[in-house]
DNA sequence: AATGATAGTTTTGTATACAATTTTGTCACA
DNA sequence: TGTGACAAAATTGTATACAAAACTATCATT
């Protein structure tokens, strides 16, 4: 159908994207043994590009020991701990440096969060965080958080984070603090916001466990 | 000579280690074009394992666009910014949780820092930070810092950080704060310590620039 | 001298073959 | 029933060949 999606990019890149998506959407669930030849046959390419894509996925932590990763509760805590540090700092930076345009966009994200469809809300919430992280002006920080997104996504699939009560209210508070250029407050609010996200995640996971 | 170093590990792993070391010790200086076949010939193996090792080095940021990375001053600042956040947190954790044995080891690092040979001092200083980072109990944090070490090393080569005045005194202050279980103080001291490291690095780099 | 077309060269991407290793299954024996 | 030895099968690691692409150099034309 779409030439772009099957032909133009290199086989390695295609393989990387397909396998990554399969892991993220649960098509390849956690713990699944990864077999090069099997994937090669499925994607209709040879093992060589498959191997390279697997090495990449290894580096990003989506594959460990030839198995699809199965992040634990501890992993989730660790991840949010790092996020709290990096995004807390970013929120402070945003209060100091975020240009007016981006403020507008933040405000719009909140609006969509209140009025949009499920799909739109998820996108807007992600964008909200992304804008703030970019305000850090630190590419290493941006990349580090990017790298963690896959694992977060893996949890979010089951948790449906966008439905958490007060989530948008908290975004709005953060936005207000940034708008008032109150860095310390923005940082604190971001920290509690992420902590609440984590607690919500953990709560859902643990209640699911007793089914 | 040493069978272990040439035979037992896989060709891919050998290649990874050799190329990585060559970059770190300046044998492959920043900006060098990386050519697969050339490396394969030099290491006496085929291109296949070379390619995989290069993908790995790409992921770690030591190779960018088939060239050896040449980190900028901005990169250095970014890196230390992240370190300050993560190691500051780690120092606080260490004050809360570090067991007595590790405290002893920290103290010993300081002793070596005062009395050891250059080589020993460098090792001891690295160990000092490593013990504290491990005290975070957060494997993601540990890995993230690990990943940054190569680039730091790349700078340290020219900067000879171990000779910075007060470095060991600052370590000692941090150690004392941890020993007294004063988390906030340990965190603050670690932050200023790393900031001083960064400033020293930048100073050296900029004075070298005017040669 | 500047441009740009084109042949030649280098380098990368992919497929394939085979060797080495790991895993799996089977069966004899205690 | 359990265990461990071994063969068979599956999987991974590495080398090699060739095709595709990116890069260089040369030279004709303006």
Secondary structure topology:
Two copies of one chain form a homodimer.
Chain A lengths: L2 H6 L2 H14 L11 H8 L3 H13 L3 E2 L2 E2 L4 H25 L2 H16 L2 H17 L4 H21 L7 H13 L3 H27 L2
Antiparallel strand pairs in A: 1-2
Helix pairs in contact in A: 2-4, 3-4, 5-7, 5-8, 5-9, 5-10, 6-7, 6-9, 8-10, 9-10
Chain A binds a DNA duplex (30 and 30 nucleotides) through helix 4.
Structure, briefly:
With 211 residues, the first copy, chain A, is mostly helical. Chain A contains ten helices and two strands; from the N terminus they run ααααββαααααα. In chain A, α8 (139-159) packs parallel to α10 (183-209).
Walkthrough of the structure:
The first copy, chain A, has 211 residues and is mainly α. Chain A folds into 2 domains: 3-68, Arc Repressor Mutant, subunit A (Orthogonal Bundle), CATH 1.10.10; 73-210, Up-down Bundle (Four Helix Bundle (Hemerythrin (Met), subunit A)). The first copy, chain A, contains 10 helices and 2 strands. In chain A, helix 5 crosses helix 7 (118-134), helix 6 (100-115) runs antiparallel to helix 9 (167-179) and helix 8 runs parallel beside helix 10 (183-209). The termini of chain A are far apart. The interface between A and B is medium-sized, with 21 and 21 residues. Chain A binds a DNA duplex (30 and 30 nucleotides) through helix 4.
């Amino acid at each position: 159908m779409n030439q772009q999606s099957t032909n133009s990019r290199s086989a390695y890149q295609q393989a990387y994207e397909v396998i990554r998506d399969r892991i993220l959407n649960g098509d390849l669930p956690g713990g699944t043994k990864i077999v090069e030849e099997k994937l090669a046959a499925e994607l209709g390419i040879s093992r060589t590009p498959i191997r390279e894509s697997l090495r990449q996925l290894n580096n990003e932590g989506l594959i460990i020991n030839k198995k699809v990763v199965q992040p634990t509760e501890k992993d989730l805590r660790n991840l949010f701990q790092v996020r709290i540090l990096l995004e807390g700092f970013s929120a402070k930076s945003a209060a100091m440096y975020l240009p007016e345009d981006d403020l507008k966009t933040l405000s719009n994200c909140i609006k969509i969060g209140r009025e949009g469809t499920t799909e739109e809300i998820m996108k807007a919430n992600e964008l909200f965080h992304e804008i703030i992280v970019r305000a850090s002006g630190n590419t290493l920080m941006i990349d580090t958080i990017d790298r963690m997104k896959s694992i977060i996504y893996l949890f979010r699939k089951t948790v449906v984070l966008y439905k958490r009560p007060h989530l948008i209210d908290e975004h709005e508070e953060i936005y207000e603090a940034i708008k008032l250029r109150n860095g310390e407050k923005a940082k604190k609010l971001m920290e509690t916001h992420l902590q609440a996200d984590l607690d919500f995640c953990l709560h859902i996971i643990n209640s699911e466990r007793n089914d």
